[in-house]
Amino acid sequence: MRKICLVAPFVPPYGGMALQAGKLVESLRRRGIPVFSVRVNRLPTDVGFWYRAPGVRTAATTVRLLRNLSARLKESDVVVIFSSFFNYFFWVTYPVVLLANAYGKSVILNARGGGAGEFCRRYRPLLRPLMRKVDLVIAPSGFLAEVFQKEFRMDVGIVRTMVDTQQFPFRHRRPLRPRLLAARNLETIYGVDVILKALKIVRERYPEAVLTIAGNGSQSAALKALAKDLGLEPGVEFLGSVAHDDMPAVYDRHDIFINASRVDNLPNALLEAFASGLPVVSTAAGGIPFLVEHGRTGLLVEVDNHEKLAEAVVFLLTCPEEASRLAGNARLVAEEYGEERVVASFLDMVERAFQKRMQRNGNKACHEE
């Protein structure tokens, strides 16, 4: 049984990568599989005012991370790094891969985030030497798998995002009401402004339509101001950050899930909506079409088109039987992302990466002799 060191952000704060990392650790431990978790978002506390200086906070956090990781590497066989593709990659992923290699450990890069393609193309010369030190890339969708196969000719395995279908029970929406839910962070890439503009159009047909937004972020004040400017108050509720354990009740209060990402991979929120029985209307950004099949499990529209987004919502409200059909199909898809299947796939990838490292270390020893 391989000993696994899992390096990732963990809750708190809430986020898709942190939630998935936490679920995976819990699932492995329930099965008696030895797994060590190394948190990348635990900030040092024994610091002074100098900690606020530019770059110091990031550097101090990285040093603390590597110190904690060193202690776990001695006990581990395989290191799994949950990685996004912005500054995080250079401050976390890059040094973690180098340190794991220094210890001769098998390395799996768990790729997350819709921005991976642009990031890899932009920084390919810097990334190529590092990717040679990675034994296996795993990704939650074919969208990200294609990025690494194309840019680095990497061996890529698919390990799906995990959703607890018992935590998010299914319910048909009968009657289907114009109660919309968006559950994304309030950042520009998630297009919540597009959702607000779409709601204004939906209200021309359904004046009683309401929207709840679960999430927080840098655009919070601007989005609240936009809702006011569009004359959508009352009827738009900003919940702020919601604990994941409280989200099933939030889904249950609503009838349609709406998403307007500009950049994305495979959002947890869409899977949770699938599981809960909310018909989904979304933009076709990034990897979303790998999850939402237009006309079968949801409705897809082009990015940044609030008119088409509104049109899709109105279609569901005027054709509730079609909405019910889409939701039923989507629930079946959600069940394919259940814990048993995901953990089994993950463990297969761990063994695959471990064997590759053993072969690599064996070849290296032969050359040294």
If you had to describe this structure to a student in words, what would you say it looks like?
The chain is built from 13 helices and twelve strands. It is an alpha/beta fold and about 375 residues long. A six-stranded parallel beta sheet has the order 2-1-3-4-5-6, with helices on both faces. The chain has a six-stranded parallel beta sheet with strand order 9-8-7-10-11-12, sandwiched between helices. The two termini are about 30 Å apart. β8 (about 210-215), α8 (about 220-230) and β9 (about 235-240) form a beta-alpha-beta unit. It has helices spanning about 15-30, 55-75, 85-100, 115-120, 125-130, 140-150, 190-205, 220-230, 245-250, 270-275, 305-320, 320-335, 340-369; strands at about 5-10, 35-40, 80-85, 105-110, 135-140, 155-160, 180, 210-215, 235-240, 255-260, 280-285, 300.
What's the quick description here?
With about 375 residues, the protein is an alpha/beta fold.
SS class: alpha/beta
* Physical arrangement of strands within the biggest beta sheet: 2-1-3-4-5-6
Q: Which residues sit in consecutive blocks of at least 5 with pLDDT less than 50?
A: none
Secondary structure tally, helices: 13
Task: Give the C-alpha Rg.
Answer: 22 Å
Which fold name is given in CATH as the topology of the largest domain? Rossmann fold
The amount of helix comes to: 40-55%
Mean pLDDT: 92
Order of helices and strands: EHEHEHEHHEHEEHEHEHEHEEHHH
Alpha-carbon distance between the two ends = 30 Å
**So, the CATH homologous superfamily of the largest domain?**
Glycogen Phosphorylase B
Shape: elongated
The total count of strands amounts to: 12
Largest sheet: 6 strands, parallel
Strand content: 5-15%
Count of all domains = 2
